[in-house]
Write a structure and sequence with these properties.
mainly alpha; rod-shaped; 2 domains
Length: about 120
């Protein structure tokens, strides 16, 4: 249980100094202590002070977040490099395919032109 430290002896002595009896000073001092503790408990309940983050909690969270971000950056850098390598491979394969198609189409055109010329040569 959380409690607010109160100097009950000082309160009782001050009350006796102004004319209260020992019993009256003791009762008033006890009521003051109970009221202060009830107020504290109500504040804890109302404001959920048990859930309030301290500077240390925030620093630990910051450190953990920085570590997580660094780890994420490392993972992303690795994935980016894999994607670059894969993209480069795909581009090379596409160039090779295009080259084969162009060479094939060139041979086909040459064959057709030679065939047409030979056919025309026999007609003349």
């Amino acid at each position: 249980m959380n409690a607010i430290p109160i100097d009950t002896l000082q309160i009782a002595n001050r009350l006796k100094a102004v004319g209260f009896t020992d019993a009256q000073a003791a009762v008033i001092t006890e009521i003051q202590r109970e009221t202060s503790n009830e107020t504290l408990q109500q504040a804890i309940h109302d404001y959920h002070l048990d859930d309030v983050a301290t500077k240390r909690d925030l620093k630990e969270m910051e450190t953990a977040l920085k570590r997580d971000i660094k780890e994420l950056e490392t993972n992303l850098d690795h994935k980016i490099e894999l994607l670059r390598a894969d993209t480069g491979r795909l581009i090379a394969e596409t160039k090779a395919d295009l080259t084969r198609w162009i060479i094939g189409a060139g041979f086909l055109q040459t064959t057709l032109i030679i065939g047409v010329l030979l056919k025309l040569g026999k007609l003349i």
